[in-house]
Structures are given as structure tokens and as C-alpha cells.
């Protein structure tokens, strides 16, 4: 249940738009009843927008505000507490995508003090599904302003169908009709759930794709802990006859593989082991962590949907790296060493290491040696692109050494207030098809369909880098956590 929904576009701090939003007064009244003395009223649209942008550091980000910027407050999710004149609004679900902000305020059907665990607030998964549905609807038109404006205008009608009276019924916005005709064409079969907008006719076919993104921060320092984590999503497309077909999908892990944690499921899932939802990466790994089986019984929507999201704390990152940058007079000496983990047997679709240089002029002179791949200089002469290719050598190690000198700096060259002096990084970009770092997979025996006919089942996986940084070990680097070692 959602009591407030909207998104804002922020192309600059001087141009703020609030093109589409909906409020649900009936749900706000319910919130006041549930929350009692802890209830915080939703402010006016303009006040909510101002408070949200402030919380997301999109305005006044140069000013230190203790309740927002203190290091003791670290967000591990897209759920925020937004400070307003009437108190702190929580939980506000918000994230940025392609220059837009998508946000909603789910209903919490209990008192807010003390705050309940996120996994017990059912409105969060419903709100997330609704926002992701809107992302899928809006994203294809991002490069065409006229088309996007038209879609935003249509979205007002679509929300009436998708979320009548504040309850998300069909989060697949793309499947809805921009006119009101769909309201009369809703299924008449009382057993057909609202999220199945039509009935499939044909041979049964189930397609599953597991996408894992690995985020990483490596420092190669004795007193700083390297950080990495896997974020996975299981996407399904179930073409099955019947008004309400029952499907059960099991995610398989290798023996002694890292457990899946922070699991969030689509609202079409009919039942699930509560222990699975309570397994959180915020807790230290011990015997209490849920180790499966990861079974999801559900009635699938008509179109493609994300069955679940998860995280995993794998023991090692896929690529270990070391970056050293030393300034000697007018030159920089750089050394980059990368080592691929032996468990990765698959070929890369692409693998590239980018070495940017901020707050300096164009690269005027470059001497280098690579043990593998090729090195390219960007057109702006402020970035080195080390293209490793589709495979590492048999040694699983590659290296780059070189010296770089720069010309006079101009306004057109990139600047960064974090990467000053020798504080610099290498950023890795790679994709490995048909591979997951956790070993999570789906096979023919992982899916049960309680419907006539033998289904065709196809499955795939992929590992993609996301914010994969290797910082210069010879200079200070931004860190979230340090450990003290003797």
C-alpha cells in the first residue's frame, strides 16, 4: 500500500521538475490510524520535494549537515528518513535512474517507534515493484523529450489502473492501456490475479535470467579493508496457459557456496520461508544465516518481471588489483597489476580498465608497456583505456607500467574534488555471460509448473561490474571503514 508517489527530474540545481505524482488521502488517513502518536503528516508537494532533494544531497551538498552527512549514518538501501517540519517521514523509498528520481512513501501498518525492520514492511516491496514498473515504462523514451512528455501525461491514467486507491495491483505499467478501456477489460475470472493482464495461448515456455552485479572498493593497504558485494536479480518470463498457473522456482547454489541474503521478492510470490527474508548481510556470517533451499512459489504476471533481488558476500572479488601512482617532478609513474580469480573459466564479453586523470591538463607524453591487451588514449587525452579483451592469459595476471606527463590545464578537462593530488583510481568494466559469481543457477529440475503440457525452460546468467574501483595505494583514498592493525 502506497500513500504518496512521485518522481522529480533534476537536470541542475536551478531546474527542478515534478512532472507526475499522486497522493492517496484515504491511505494517509489509514496511516494516521495505524501510526497513532508516531504519525508524521505528509507535507505539501513542494515541501516534500524540497526535503527529499536535500536528503539525497541534490541541493546544498556543499554544506555539512550532521543528521544527513555524519559518517555514523550509512545507507545500505534506497530507504530514507526525510526530515520535514512535522517530523521525519519514514520509510521514503527513493532512487535515481537516468536523471530522474523515483520515490514513494509506503504505508506502515503499525507504530513507527521503534522503527520496525524493513523486511516486515510489506509496502516496501510493493512500492519498489511499482517504481520499477514505471522505470521500464519511461526509460525507452529518455532520449526523446517529446515522447517522454507524452508518456508522463499518459502515466496519470495508468496509475489509476495500476494503483487504485493506493494499492498496487498491476506493477507492469507497460502492459496497461493509456486510455480507460482497460478498466472495463480487466479479467472476469475471479481466480485470475490482477497482475495477470491477459491469458497466454500456446506452448508453455519459461525463461529465467540471473544477473549479478559486483561492486568493489580495493585499496591494497594494510590498515584499510577492501570491500565488495554481489547484487543479484532473477528475471522471469512465464508463457503458460491458464488464468492463475502455479509455478515454483528453486535457486540452486554449489556446495559450500556463499548464501543469498537481503532477499526481496515480487508480490506475486504466494509463500516463502520467513527465515529466508530475515537473512541480512548487515549481520555477521554465522550458522544462523539461511542456506536454502531458495524456493519461490508464485503466480506469474503475463510479461517479464523480476522475481527476486538478493545480495551475497562472496569470499573474494573476481579480479584483484593493485594501482600505484607516484609523482616525480613533472611526470607520473603508474603501475597497474590485475589478477583474475581461478574460478572464472568463462570468456568475457568485454574487459576494460579505465585510468582517468583529474585536475590536470591533457596528456602530452605517454610511454607504457602492457603485458597483455592494448592501451588507448581518449580523444580528450585525459583517460587511458586498457582493453584486456575476452580472456586473461594462462597466468591469470596482467600488468601495465608507464610514465605520463601533462600539458597546460583548461576548463574542458575533467575535475574532481575527491581525486586531488595523487588520490586516483582505476575503474574496471567487464561482463561475463553465462556465469554468476555466487554459482546461483536454475536448471530443468529447478522449475515446477502445475499446468498441462511439458514446458520449455531456458536459463542464463551474467556477471557485470558495477562501481568496481582500485584506488592508488600510494595516496589517501576515500574510505567508509578502517581497521586498526598492530
Outline the secondary-structure elements.
Blueprint: E1 2-12, E2 15-23, H1 25-35, H2 45-55, H3 66-69, E3 79-84, E4 87-97, E5 100-106, H4 122-138, H5 145-162, H6 181-184, E6 205-218, E7 227-239, E8 246-251, E9 261-265, H7 274-278, E10 294-298, E11 305-312, E12 319-328, E13 331-340, E14 350-356, E15 363-370, E16 374-377, E17 383-387, E18 397-406, E19 425-433, E20 447-450, E21 456-471
Parallel strand pairs: 6-21
Antiparallel strand pairs: 1-2, 1-5, 3-4, 4-5, 6-7, 7-11, 8-10, 8-20, 9-11, 12-13, 13-18, 14-17, 14-19, 15-18, 16-17, 19-21
Helix pairs in contact: 4-5
Q: TL;DR?
A:
The chain is mainly β and 486 residues long.
Question: In words, what does this structure look like?
Answer:
Probably part of the adaptor protein complex 5 (AP-5) a tetramer composed of AP5B1, AP5M1, AP5S1 and AP5Z1. The chain is mainly beta. It has 3 domains: 2-178, Beta-Lactamase (2-Layer Sandwich), CATH 3.30.450; 205-316 and 437-470, Immunoglobulin-like, CATH 2.60.40.1170; 319-434, Sandwich (Immunoglobulin-like). Helices cover 14% and strands 37% of the residues. The strands form 4 sheets. Strands 9-11-7-6-21-19-14-17-16 form a 9-stranded mixed beta sheet. A 5-stranded antiparallel beta sheet has the order 2-1-5-4-3. A 4-stranded antiparallel beta sheet has the order 12-13-18-15, with no helix packed on it. β3 (79-84) and β4 (87-97) form a beta hairpin. The longest helix is centred in the N-terminal third of the chain and has 18 residues, at 145-162. It is globular and about 75 Å long. Mean pLDDT is 85; it is low at 1-16 and 180-188.
Amino acid at each position: 500500500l502506497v500513500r504518496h508517489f512521485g518522481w522529480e527530474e533534476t537536470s541542475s540545481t536551478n531546474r527542478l521538475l515534478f512532472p507526475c505524482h499522486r497522493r492517496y488521502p484515504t491511505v494517509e488517513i489509514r496511516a494516521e490510524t495505524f501510526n497513532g502518536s508516531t504519525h508524521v503528516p505528509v507535507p505539501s508537494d513542494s515541501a516534500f520535494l524540497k526535503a527529499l532533494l536535500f536528503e539525497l544531497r541534490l541541493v546544498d551538498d556543499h554544506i555539512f549537515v550532521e543528521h544527513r552527512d555524519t559518517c555514523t549514518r550509512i545507507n545500505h538501501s534506497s530507504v530514507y528518513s526525510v526530515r520535514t517540519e512535522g517530523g521525519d517521514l519514514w520509510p521514503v523509498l527513493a532512487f535515481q535512474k537516468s536523471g530522474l528520481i523515483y520515490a514513494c512513501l509506503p504505508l506502515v501498518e503499525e507504530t513507527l517507534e521503534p522503527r520496525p525492520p524493513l523486511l516486515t514492511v510489506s509496502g516496501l516491496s510493493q512500492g519498489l515493484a511499482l517504481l520499477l514498473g514505471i522505470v521500464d515504462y519511461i526509460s525507452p523514451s529518455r532520449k526523446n523529450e517529446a515522447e517522454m512528455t507524452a508518456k508522463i501525461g499518459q502515466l496519470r491514467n495508468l496509475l489509476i489502473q495500476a494503483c487504485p486507491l493506493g494499492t498496487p495491483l498491476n506493477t507492469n505499467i507497460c502492459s496497461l492501456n493509456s486510455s480507460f478501456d482497460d478498466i472495463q477489460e480487466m479479467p472476469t475470472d475471479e481466480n485470475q490475479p490482477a497482475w495477470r493482464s491477459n491469458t497466454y495461448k500456446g506452448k508453455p515456455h519459461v525463461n529465467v535470467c540471473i544477473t549479478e552485479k559486483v561492486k568493489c572498493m580495493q585499496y591494497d593497504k594494510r590498515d584499510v579493508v577492501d570491500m565488495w558485494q554481489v547484487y543479484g536479480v532473477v528475471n522471469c518470463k512465464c508463457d503458460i496457459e491458464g488464468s492463475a498457473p502455479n509455478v515454483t522456482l528453486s535457486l540452486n547454489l554449489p556446495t559450500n557456496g556463499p548464501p543469498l541474503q537481503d532477499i526481496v521478492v515480487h508480490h506475486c510470490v504466494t509463500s516463502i520461508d520467513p527465515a529466508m527474508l530475515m537473512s541480512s548481510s548487515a549481520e555477521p556470517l554465522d550458522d544462523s544465516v539461511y542456506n536454502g533451499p531458495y524456493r519461490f512459489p508464485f503466480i506469474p504476471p503475463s510479461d517479464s518481471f523480476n522475481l527476486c533481488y538478493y545480495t551475497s558476500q562472496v569470499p573474494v572479488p573476481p579480479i584483484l588489483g593493485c594501482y600505484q601512482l607516484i609523482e616525480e617532478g613533472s611526470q607520473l609513474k603508474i603501475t597497474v597489476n590485475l589478477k583474475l580469480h581461478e574460478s572464472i573459466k568463462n570468456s568475457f564479453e568485454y574487459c576494460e580498465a579505465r585510468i582517468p586523470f583529474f585536475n590536470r591538463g591533457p596528456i602530452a607524453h605517454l610511454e607504457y608497456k602492457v603485458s597483455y591487451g592494448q592501451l588507448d588514449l581518449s580523444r580528450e587525452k585525459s583517460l587511458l583505456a586498457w582493453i584486456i579483451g575476452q580472456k586473461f592469459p594462462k597466468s591469470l595476471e596482467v600488468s601495465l607500467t608507464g610514465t605520463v606527463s601533462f600539458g597546460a590545464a583548461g576548463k574542458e578537462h575533467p575535475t574532481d574534488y575527491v581525486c586531488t593530488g595523487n588520490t586516483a583510481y582505476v575503474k574496471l568494466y567487464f561482463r561475463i555471460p553465462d556465469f554468476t559469481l555466487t554459482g546461483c543457477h536454475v536448471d530443468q529440475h529447478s522449475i515446477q509448473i502445475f499446468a498441462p503440457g511439458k514446458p520449455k525452460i531456458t536459463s542464463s546468467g551474467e556477471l557485470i561490474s558495477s562501481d568496481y574501483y582500485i584506488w592508488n595505494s600510494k595516496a589517501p583514498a576515500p574510505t567508509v571503514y578502517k581497521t586498526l592493525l598492530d
